[in-house]
Specification:
about 475 residues, Outer membrane efflux proteins (OEP), alpha+beta
Length: about 475
């Protein structure tokens, strides 16, 4: 019986945590991993580039208001006759309110000029004013407004996509941690059963136990070895999947070696101390500020801009142009404006049926209605997701606590069975049964902790959208 006592002392020693078994092993912390994904992952970098594209599109739309400098020179000579020699300089300045300001200098001379041409140098300063269509809003203003809205829309979209990428990476990290913990659990169980098998063989040699106990212990060990190999394979697969999110600074993929292990275990996640605060914070956030809602709102602003422009297109085109004229080397005489030295024009255009304009107007109105329906659906979806994730986090936390208590009970049952076995009142079969139940409970706890962290991550990265 002294030898049996030694067996269970060895078993208890082997059950202790692996203290500093892998001090030289490289470790990957959760914060470091998320930082690597955020800074170096190609998709995260691509999303940042998309924001730059949106900024350049705003710059492109502003280009519609750039002043235009125009210059031309021409001449015609035929059979020794100078028909004309002409030079033109012009500066056209579009303004925000649809009015175009122009300044021109024209000089022309020759023997065959048109009657509408003024020989010599001529200065012109004028304006073109829309009196109906394009007065309150025009295509240039619409393009700039829509580019600004599209930039904000892109920023919201890229924030959502980045958060989705980080959510997937976060879940992959904690899945990797869980697979490693489970492999370590199976490895400890195999080590315990190997020691147990060796000591059982010694007790058989001394005649203290039956030889059948050797077969019982060996069968139990082989079962655990199979589970350990399967756990190792799962950890290898999780490591390879985690490598999908690891990239170097120069955008090269990085394969994570098996020598790298997690810095934290599942229980060390800050989620266990932060989840109540996170739930309260998410529930108090205004939904309209979430990136998903902002994306829809900016799309709505674009449609409103289109509707405003389409409403202008229903009006007739009525443009008034006026130029002050002054011949070179003559004294300026501008006032009264319509007495001398001026040129004006009035242009009117009215589509008869307005079918295109009316159709575009109705289409935009329909799109705005669709946008409102989408906004209502997205708001309800966010409310539901917040409620579901919060319930999952709280429920999995409670389940984890119950599972931990269950493990404590299974451990006490195993210890009691070991005591009975030392007193000759039990069998190795019952001990193995108790140990299997304990292992299943520990595996269940790991699964619950992973589910808790995944639900917490859903809530955390949803909250990052505000």
């Amino acid at each position: 019986m002294k030898l049996l006592n030694k067996i269970f002392i060895w078993v208890c020693v082997c059950c202790l945590p692996l203290g500093s078994r892998a001090q030289d092993t490289l470790r990957l912390a959760h914060e470091e991993f998320v930082s690597i994904v955020k800074n170096y992952h190609p998709m995260a970098y691509r999303y940042r580039l998309q924001n730059r594209v949106a900024q350049r599109e705003v710059q492109e739309a502003r280009g519609n208001f750039d002043p235009l400098l125009d210059a031309s020179h021409g001449a015609k000579t035929l059979d020794g006759l100078d028909y004309y020699r002409e030079t033109n300089l012009a500066l056209n300045i579009p303004t925000w309110y649809g009015i175009e300001v122009t300044g021109k200098y024209n000089t022309i001379d020759g023997q065959r000029l048109n009657n509408s041409e003024t020989e010599g140098g001529l200065y012109q300063f004028g304006v073109t004013v829309p009196l109906a269509q394009n007065l309150l809003y025009d295509k240039r203003r619409a393009l700039l407004d829509q580019a600004k809205f599209a930039r904000q829309m892109t920023e919201a979209e890229q924030e959502l996509l980045t958060n989705r990428l980080l959510l997937e990476a976060d879940n992959a990290y904690w899945t990797w941690v869980k697979k490693y913990e489970y492999y370590q659990l199976q490895s400890r169980t195999v080590a315990i059963n190997r020691e147990r098998l060796q000591l059982i063989r010694k007790t058989v040699e001394y005649g203290e136990t039956a030889a059948i106990d050797t077969i019982e212990a060996q069968s139990q060990l082989q079962g655990f070895e199979l589970q350990m190999e399967d756990a190792f394979l799962e950890w290898v697969k999780a490591t390879q999947e985690l490598s999908l999110y690891l990239w170097t600074e120069n955008q090269q993929p990085y394969n994570l070696p098996l020598s790298v292990i997690p810095t934290q275990n599942l229980l060390m996640s800050p989620a266990y101390s932060n989840f109540a605060l996170l739930i309260n914070e998410v529930n108090t956030q205004p939904l309209q500020q979430h990136a998903a809602m902002q994306f829809i709102f900016q799309e709505q602003n674009i449609l409103k801009s289109e509707l405003k422009l389409n409403r202008q297109l229903l009006l007739p085109q009525l443009n008034f142009t006026y130029h002050l004229l002054n011949k070179e080397s003559e004294r300026s005489k501008y006032f009264p404006l319509f007495e001398d030295n001026y040129q004006y024009g009035l242009k009117l255009g009215i589509p008869i049926f307005l079918r295109q304009e009316r159709a575009r107007f109705r289409i935009t109105q329909t799109k705005l209605l669709q946008n409102k329906l989408e906004s209502d659906m997205k708001r309800q979806e966010l409310n539901t997701r917040i409620s579901v994730y919060a319930s999952e986090v709280q429920n999995y936390y409670r389940q984890s606590e119950l599972a931990q208590q269950n493990i404590s009970n299974f451990r006490r049952l195993l210890e009691a069975e070991e005591t009975r076995f030392r007193n000759g009142e039990s069998s190795l079969f019952l001990i193995n049964t108790r140990e299997t139940k304990l292992l299943e409970a520990e595996q269940k706890l790991l699964e619950l902790r992973l589910k808790f962290l995944m639900s917490y991550n859903q809530l955390k990265w949803l909250n990052e959208g505000f």
